[in-house]
Amino acid sequence: MNSDTLAAEETIAAPLRYPAELDAVESSTEGMQVNWQVDQGGGPDADIEYLLRWETLPSSRDQARAESPAATELRLYGIRQGAL
Q1: pLDDT per position as a tens digit, 35-51
Q2: Is 74 domain-assigned?
Q3: Cβ atoms within 10 Å of 79's Cβ, excluding its own
């Protein structure tokens, strides 16, 4: 931020909680995106953060689509904090 005007001078991306290659879409359906949900609880090892990953098309706001994409896998990842 500019100290005089408080205007943003640079945008810095937040660090990822997972390896960047996991953000690559695997589905062959055009327009799919990767979605993540971070664990809201705690597991037996406090150094591991659990994340769910799945692929979908963007929101259609309840509008019908011409075709539905094939189902994708819902995956659970356990990422050790500080490992990246």
Answers
A1: 999 988 888 898 999 99
A2: yes
A3: 19
